[in-house]
Each structure stands twice: as C-alpha cells, then as structure tokens.
C-alpha cells in the first residue's frame, strides 16, 4: 500500500519506525492537493511554509527521543470555522473575507499539544448553513467519488479532503449532521461527539446549543485517535462537560459482548428513502446479528417533528449569533452607504449569501413579538420530548442504528431551488444534535451508481467509548471502509 493510501494508524506506525517523516507526509499531502484540489475544491487556504515548519519541529523532537502526542506528526485539516492564530477564518462567507483571528481555539491548542501538523483550512457552507457545500462564497466542493455530486455539508471540504487522500485526518463541525452526512456521502468515517465533550471555544457559532466539533478519518481508529486528542473539559467554554475523558484507544478493538442494537420504528416508513439505503441498513443489521448482537425495535414517537423543530431553533440562534456582523461590531463593511441605516442594510446584503439570509429571516420572524411563544417556545418543548424519547430507548439498547441520509450523494444543484428538500436530507441526523447525543457515520455500502452509503450509530450522552467499539465491530466485519474513490477522468488518479 502506498503511503498516500495508508490510514492514520498505519502512517503513525511508519512515523514511529522512521520509515517516513512528518515533513515527508506533509509534502505528499501538498502534492496530492496540488494535483487534485483544482477539481475537488476541498481547501480554502494552505500555509505550506508553516505546515512544513511544524512538521520539521515534530521530526526534530522524535529524533531527540522526546515523547510525542497521540497524533505524533500526522497532518490534520481544519474546517474554516475554527479560529487559528494568524490564519484566515472566513466561515465560507464574504462577511469574514479579511478576518485573521488573533488567538487559537481550544481545539487548535489541543491539536498542537497532540503534535498534529495543521495543514490547511477546508471549504464549507457559509457559516455552516447547508448540506452540500454549495453555499460557500468562494468555491463549490465536489465529491471525489463523482465530481457531479455533492460531498455533503456543511463540512464537505473536510470530508472530501480525507476521501481524496489529501490528508489523513480532518476536523469538521456538526450542527444538524454536518460531519456525519458528508462522511456518508464521501465514504469516510465521521464522528459527532456528545455536546460539551469537545470545547467550542474559538468555534464561530451558528447555533450555539447544537454546534459540536468532531473528527473525520478513513476509519474508526483514525477518528478515535483524533477524538482522544481533542476531547476534554475547557474552563473557557461554559457548555464544556467537566468529566474525565476515557482512554478510547485502549479498548477500541474489544468487541461489545451481547450488544443491543436498536432500529427506530418510525424511520422504517420515512418518505423519500432510497431502496439501496434501506437495503444497506438491513445488511448492516445482519452483520451485527452474525456478530451476536441483539437487534430490537425502539420507538422515537417525536422524531417526526425533528426537522420542523430544528429549523426553528437553529435559525433563531443563528439570527442572534449573526447579529454582530453589521459593519460596526464585526466583519465586512460596505463602502457604498449614505447613512448608518443604509450601511447596516448594505453590509449584510453584501456580506451574507442567500441561505444565510433565509435562515436569519426565519429566526428573526420566529423570535418576534407575538410569534415567540407559538414557534420558538413550542420548539424547545418538543426538543425536550425528543430527548426523553432517546432516554427511554437507551434503557433498552446500547446503540441505535439508522441511515445517515435518505439517499446517497445527490447531484450538485439538484436541490438549489428547493431548500425544503435539502432540509429533509438531514432527517436522520438532526435528532442527535437536538438531544445532545454522540453519533458516528461509517461506510456501509456502495450504490449501483458508485456512490458511498453510510451507516449511522447513536449512543447515550458521553457513551462515545461503546459507540466507537460498536462501529469498529462493524468495520472489522466488512470491507466498505477499504473502498477508494474510482478514477474520475484521466486527470484524477492516485499514485
């Protein structure tokens, strides 16, 4: 296997044996990016010199015999929604086109402490609002499996970069499925941790009660290693959970004895489900049964309200969070204003794209006098009912299995004029954010059109350790995670 095809664990073993160096890995990643990112569009910014300086410093530590962190010189790409000192942080928006953060987010500090090499900034839907990475103000990201299809969103750049072997690991953010859905579309592994398990300090907020940072990797082991590096309490984040972080890696290979897998009754008749996605879930459950799992049905009676609930709560929080971008407090300012009110209006008209404007308007309306009780307050009540449904379900099962998305990756532009159809593509992922649960997407099939299909597993809050072990059980029993994007045109190939 060539170095570029190796998983994070395999690369780390080669680094430890001195078979390769971190600087060589960085140069190889940069070569892949130069060769293929013109077609894929995964990255918004690269600082080549800084990445090589980081790698050479880590190589020097290894040569001196110093102990290294859990990532030990592995390159990591970071979604362009996380503050990193001295690097652009645009959030895929013209509103922040010239913003250079003066500080590091906690997750950046943790990555540095784990001896990761911060390679570059990945493309995303503007302010993380979208499911296709078509809403970026700068470029469209394409799926490495088929360039006419979406990589998912909003962390499509992070998922595409891993799938195209431009980088072994990446960081995404997940507000309603934005790590898991692109992981599914791109045939990689993506993990959304429990809300509060990973610090949000330095994450540019979309919906503060829903946002969570997490890892993407080629396999469960790589995602676990990255989670080990970034998890933990942070006094700078008031939502951070003050609980010890388990040693996820030490028990990853131990199968779960008598694991109970839940299948959601209400999902089995979901509208718009692709037959191949349904078949993939059935096959995945058969794999678990063969491994000795007890597969049983659970009920989430309020799951049918998840999309409506999410698309009230998230826009309301976005309306509040994005109010700071007004040309005075923060971000872009228009040069074509005659008075203060005109400046406010034109600044936001120029700086925000259509999807961001749409969600701000929805949120502002729902929070306005006379509508707050009817919409936002009711949505909060339903959110609590959704969490209670999960609490009851996890008394009966250890993990819940479902599709990640009703369909494989859709064509770019296919939902551009139908925002509701785009919102419904998050049907199976939204509930984890509303309930604060950990969830993972692992490769579980390939459609007849050659596009990946993912399996989603959810667990109770702070149960990442059994969740990862259950995902690893499936991964070891199948070969879907070993599949690679096929050749897409003569100019797209892997060495």
For this entry, give a set of tags.
15 helices, 11 strands, globular, disordered C terminus
Low-confidence stretches: 487-495
Report, as a whole number of angstroms, the end-to-end distance.
10 Å
Spell the H/E element sequence. HHEHEHEHEHEEHEHEHHHHEHHEEH
Strand arrangement across the biggest beta sheet: 1-3-2-4-6-5-10-11-9-7-8
In angstroms, what is the radius of gyration?
21 Å
What structural category arises from helix and sheet content?
alpha/beta
Q: Helix fraction?
A: 25-40%
Total beta-strand segments:
11
Mean pLDDT equals: 95
Major β-sheet, in short? 11 strands, mixed
Estimate the strand proportion: 5-15%
Number of helices: 15
User: What characteristic shape results from the CA principal axes?
Assistant: globular
What does this structure look like?
Helix 2 packs antiparallel against helix 3. With 495 residues, the chain is of the alpha/beta class. The protein has 15 helices and 11 strands.
List the helices and strands and how they pair.
Elements: H1 8-16, H2 22-40, E1 43-46, H3 48-63, E2 75-79, H4 106-113, E3 117-122, H5 156-163, E4 169-174, H6 180-186, E5 189-192, E6 212-217, H7 220-230, E7 260-264, H8 275-290, E8 294-298, H9 306-321, H10 340-351, H11 354-367, H12 373-393, E9 399-403, H13 419-424, H14 430-435, E10 439-446, E11 452-459, H15 464-477
Parallel strand pairs: 2-3, 2-4, 7-8, 7-9
Antiparallel strand pairs: 1-3, 4-6, 5-6, 5-10, 9-11, 10-11
